[in-house]
Write a structure and sequence with these properties.
The termini are far apart. With 462 residues, the chain is of the alpha/beta class. The protein contains 22 helices and nine strands. Helix 18 (321-330) links the parallel strand 2 and strand 3 (335-338). Among the domains are: 152-239, Serine Threonine Protein Phosphatase 5, Tetratricopeptide repeat (Alpha Horseshoe), CATH 1.25.40; 267-459, Rossmann fold, CATH 3.40.50. The protein has helices at 18-30, 34-47, 52-64, 68-81, 86-98, 102-115, 120-132, 136-149, 154-166, 171-187, 192-204, 208-221, 226-234, 246-256, 260-266, 272-283, 304-307, 321-330, 341-346, 368-377, 410-420, 452-459, and strands at 291-296, 311-318, 335-338, 352-357, 378-391, 398-400, 406-409, 422-435, 438-449. TPR repeats lie at residues 86-119, 120-153. Keywords: TPR repeat.
């Protein structure tokens, strides 16, 4: 054959294996590389239209990135292809739960259990949303069923312990929580949340020596861990610091970032964002998106939708990067920063018309420095609104409690505000949440940034 007349054979390009691409996407997802993971999931869907695992995991990824509605639609599409997939039903329930749609979440978890009766995560999630809907008997039955089916599931024992303590109607329920936390830790020795919960229950029962010993043993194993160091002081085993250390606060809230809203749902009467927003609404003009507002200790962003109508600019700051990431996913803020609150405020002179702080100053003992920083950060006439846990008595007192949070007397808060230069001060008692089944007494505080002469005049006796 003549070389010039030889035919050139063109071979088709090799088609990518969608299964291999899906594995790469899942690895990128697990490695916290969301952009690459999304690109690969969508590549799978180009190669294999409506591939249900890619739809399912892409839906989870979208929710984690703050695109919850898109995530819901993707998982629903996956379930049209594989309607009996318990993991997909469970994850769809998780999105609804984290968006506050508890009835929809409950329906998803029940679907997951219909198609996967041994799906322990779905059963524990069902218990949580039943509890959040104030259906404690059904929640208790779900926890009991979970532990009957999975007696070695450490998380189940821990969640039942929290449930018993949160809804305690007597000391016997606290005693039962102790047994649950001990079992959780015995099953999973790295489960340090169970140790912390165990010590708190022991302290509530008056067994402070046992609580102190739990923290000392923990410190002996992990001498650099700030959590047992702080909690040892909270139980009276060491001198109390003037405020909770940065490392302690950061570690606690980074660790709980993924379940923080869920924990608040379990504290069925948690009302701090709504109550503080109501105090603001009473002193501010009608919402006109005209103010610069700071959510000081923003956490996962629960206050954002309540503050947004007033805000030209809404910023959030928190010491926990994990919490700030959750707030970023929730949306509503113009800016979010990870920083220690006092230092952040000191670097923001005359920057804000409103500073709101829900359940953040409970991690400060002496309030003077942070309130002085807040005064400097507010513009003249600006408002500071915050909550504290209340300590009884007429003395100027601060107390670190077994929860790791501080309680302040009314006179301590009042004097610290006056020294900082605030006027138009109002401190009301309320209950913003429950602990151990009982309402926690709280102070709801409102104060205005005024000039020195006005503040002094307001302190003069009538």
């Amino acid at each position: 054959m003549n070389r010039d007349s030889a035919q050139v054979v063109v071979r088709p390009a090799a088609v990518k294996d969608w299964r291999a691409v899906l594995k790469q996407a899942m690895r990128a997802h697990q490695a916290d590389d969301p952009d690459h993971a999304e690109q690969l999931y969508r590549e799978v869907l180009d190669l294999r239209v409506a591939q249900p695992d890619a739809l399912h995991y892409l839906g989870v990824l979208c929710h984690q990135g703050g695109r919850s509605d898109e995530g819901v639609e993707l998982i629903r599409t996956a379930l049209q292809v594989t309607p009996k997939h318990p993991d997909a039903h469970n994850n769809l329930g998780n999105i609804h739960k984290e968006c506050g749609r508890l009835r929809e979440a409950e329906a998803c978890y029940r679907k997951a259990l219909e198609h996967g009766p041994q799906h322990y995560n779905a059963l524990s999630n069902l218990a949580v949303v039943l509890e959040a809907q104030e259906r404690p008997q059904e929640a208790f039955e779900a926890y009991e069923k979970l532990l009957q089916q999975a007696p070695d599931f450490a998380q189940g024992h821990y969640l039942l312990g929290l449930f018993l303590r949160n809804h305690a109607q007597g000391l016997e329920h606290i005693e039962q929580s102790v047994a649950c936390f001990r079992e959780a830790y015995a099953l999973e020795p790295r489960f340090v949340q169970a140790l912390e919960a165990l010590s708190v229950s022991l302290y509530v029962l008056g067994r402070s020596d046992e609580a102190v010993q739990v923290y000392r043993d923990w410190m002996a194993r992990e001498p650099d861990n700030p959590i047992p160091r702080h909690m040892l002081a909270a139980c009276g085993g060491a001198d109390a610091p003037v405020r909770a250390g940065d490392a302690y606060v950061r570690d606690i809230f980074d660790r709980f970032a993924d379940s923080f809203d869920e924990q608040l749902l379990q504290n069925l009467d948690y009302r701090a964002p709504q109550v503080l927003a109501g105090v603001l609404n009473a002193v501010l003009p009608a919402p006109a998106a005209a103010l610069d507002v700071l959510d000081a200790g923003c956490g996962t962003g629960l206050c954002a939708p309540l503050l947004r109508p007033h805000a030209r600019q809404l910023a959030g700051v928190d010491l926990s990067g994990g919490m700030v990431e959750k707030a970023r996913q929730r949306g509503g803020y113009d800016a979010l920063d990870v920083a220690e609150l006092t230092a952040y405020l000191q670097e923001q002179p005359d920057a804000w018309d409103v500073v709101l702080s829900a359940d953040t100053l409970v991690y400060f003992g002496e309030l003077g420095p942070v309130l002085a920083a807040a005064h400097a950060a507010l513009r003249p006439g600006g408002w500071l609104v915050f909550s504290l846990e209340a300590k009884e008595g007429e003395e100027d007192r601060v107390e670190l409690t077994a929860s790791g949070r501080y309680r302040h007397s009314r006179i301590h808060a009042l004097r610290a505000l006056e020294r900082a230069g605030f006027g138009d001060i109002r401190i009301d008692e309320d209950s913003l949440r429950k602990e151990f089944g009982q309402p926690v007494r709280s102070w709801v505080v409102r104060a205005r940034c005024v000039d020195a002469a006005t503040a002094a005049a307001e302190r003069l006796p009538a």
